[in-house]
Specification:
The complex is a heterodimer.
Chain A: H1 2-5, H2 8-41, H3 57-67, H4 78-94, E1 104-107, E2 110-113, H5 122-131, H6 133-144, H7 147-178, H8 183-189, E3 193-194, E4 198-199, H9 207-220, H10 232-235, H11 245-270, H12 289-314, H13 322-349, H14 356-377, H15 397-400
Chain B: H1 3-32, H2 62-94, E1 98-99, E2 105-106, H3 108-132
Antiparallel strand pairs in B: 1-2
Helix pairs in contact in B: 2-3
Classes of the chains: A mainly alpha, B mainly alpha.
Chain lengths: 405, 138
């Protein structure tokens, strides 16, 4: 029994249960923090009734989700209606399996990975699981047989499909640079440093790829500014309009779990995963329990940082118009990521893929091309806004703005 | 296959199993715990209180279909880049070569040439779609 528990598979099983529990708790508290942060940004209090500072709010929410009536309206396609939240939840919570949480731990004679699974196609697994998220949304929208739901589902599909291509290409840039699809290996390759104090993270090689990956992660999770599928003012709730009680909760938990997995992926690919710079672990204590604990805290901190950034953006930026959303994906991000791909190929071919000077120089060239083409394209005005004059005529001023006039 | 190779997939299987069980438990809870009271209004379509005129599953805009077709083409093309990326990195950094069918060996130059042709086709496709106005939402 002890032998099994200290083997990789035993550790994987224990880790599955622990990470799943931690993830469920984290997701519940993400919702609490989202409300607190939105309150802070909008100068309100946020939840503050249940428990000290509202800290027990997620538990109260959970109880409400359970005890409220789970309405299955008469017009829906019942099996699909039940399947949709289940598939969203399932897909959102299996993605974490390939994320490396804390390097390796010495257990007796074994050196085990603090990672549920370390397959040689780790990155492809995460990408595949993430893109399966669209099924639940389509199913939910179709099964609901409701106009709001179906419009939300179609919009979500179009935006998720469009943003998947730049996402794949951004990750491909890292694959080319690192030469492996194992996430643990990618983390280990980033543990060095340049000039002795700059950590050897990929963000210092391909900052543009990171920014584009972050944008696509927002779109894949249907977060503002890309939350067209659930635009409240137009579509009520989008694809989950007809859902209530725990099924609605499953959609909600799935969305936040998706955010956590995407943040973890970004932390691993671009910010060195569990790597804590400036603290050299000696060979003796690199695999001890305290080192592993420190690494887990480090990657959790990085994930929390990304999630805070996502929440901050949500409560700061207005929503994109749908045609602009697809325009951004197809006419801006895809050409830019194709350029980044070519850059990475050139760097690898010439053997300069680990040189920040060459990589950053290439990034600067691509940025200049992007900005120049954007400035040129600005002249052709698109959409309905084209009919509006740039500045309002003087005689309409009193109607649209200041109370003083 | 050795045990070390199959182990991660077994672990992923365990994860999928555990999460499936959890999902099942949540669905069962959803169906058993809460109250259940039906009514004609509650069972009807939610359309902000207005009685719905027609079924929701109607024809939808062809522009969405266009996006789906473009996605299929592009995503398949991008997937082809993945195995190539790993092989190319190996070839360029360690000088490893791939055996060819005619007995020769493919180095990084050969790999670059092959991908160059494929990539040119991909970019040409994108430019063609762009010129044709397929990427425009008008």
């Amino acid at each position: 029994m002890i032998e099994f528990l200290t083997s990789q598979l035993g550790v994987s099983i224990i880790l599955t249960v622990c990470v799943l529990g931690a993830l469920l708790g984290a997701v519940a508290y993400c919702i609490y923090f989202e409300r607190k942060i939105s309150a802070w940004i909008q100068d309100r209090f946020g939840p503050n009734r249940v428990g000290p500072r509202g800290l027990l709010q997620p538990i109260a929410d959970g109880a409400k989700f359970l005890l409220k009536e789970d309405v299955i309206p008469g017009h829906v396609d019942k099996p699909l209606f039940v399947l949709a939240p289940a598939s969203i939840f399932l897909v959102a919570f299996i993605g974490f399996a390939a994320i490396p949480w804390g390097g390796q731990l010495q257990l007796g004679d074994n050196l085990v990975n603090i990672q549920v699974a370390n397959p040689d196609i780790g990155l492809l697994y995460i990408l595949g699981v993430a893109s399966m998220g669209v099924y639940g949304i389509v199913l939910g929208g179709w099964a609901s047989n409701n106009k709001y739901s179906i419009y939300g589902a179609i919009r979500a599909t179009a935006s998720m499909l469009s943003y998947e291509i730049p996402m794949g290409l951004c990750i491909l840039v890292i694959v080319l640079t690192m030469g492996t699809l194992r996430l643990e290996q990618i983390t280990v390759l980033q543990t060095g440093s340049w000039l002795g104090f700059i950590p050897q993270w990929n963000i210092f090689l391909h900052p543009l790829a990171f920014i584009i990956l972050f944008i696509t992660a927002l779109a894949e999770a249907n977060r503002t500014p890309f939350d067209m599928p659930e635009a409240e003012q137009e579509l009520v709730g989008g694809y989950h309009t007809e859902y209530s009680a725990l099924k609605f909760g499953m959609f909600f938990l799935g969305e936040y779990a998706h955010m956590i997995t995407a943040s973890a992926l970004m932390a691993v690919l671009f910010f060195g995963g569990w790597h804590l710079p400036w603290i050299p672990w000696t060979q003796a204590d690199a695999h001890q329990w305290y080192a592993v604990l420190a690494k887990i805290l480090v990657i959790s901190g990085k994930i929390a940082g990304f999630i805070f950034l996502m929440m901050w953006l949500r409560w700061t930026l207005p929503r994109f118009r749908f045609d602009r959303l697809l325009w951004l994906a197809w006419q801006r991000l895809i050409p830019a990521t194709l350029g980044l791909f070519v850059l990475a190929v050139i760097l690898v071919y010439t053997g300069n893929h680990q040189s920040p000077l060459w990589a950053l120089g290439g990034n600067a060239v691509i940025l200049v091309i992007m900005l120049a083409s954007g400035a040129m394209a600005r002249r052709e005005v698109t959409g309905r806004q084209g009919n509006l004059p740039r500045t309002l005529p003087a005689d309409t001023r009193g109607f649209v703005g200041s109370p003083s006039s | 296959m050795r045990v070390a190779e199959i182990e991660p997939y077994a672990a992923i299987g365990v994860v999928i199993l555990v999460v499936t069980l959890l999902t099942g438990v949540m669905l069962i809870l959803a169906h058993t715990v809460g109250p259940r009271r039906h009514g004609p209004v509650k069972d009807s379509v939610y359309e902000s209180g207005v009685p719905p005129i027609a079924d929701a599953r109607r024809r939808f805009n062809v522009r969405f279909y266009m996006i789906a077709v473009l996605f299929l083409l592009f995503d398949v093309e991008v997937i082809f880049l993945w195995p190539w990326a790993k092989l190319f990195h190996g070839a360029a950094t360690t000088g490893a070569t791939l055996p060819l069918e005619n007995g020769g060996e493919a180095g990084k130059g050969f790999l670059l040439l092959g991908m160059g042709l494929f990539f040119a086709l991909l970019v040409f496709g994108l430019l063609y779609e762009w010129k044709k106005g397929a990427l425009k939402w008008e």
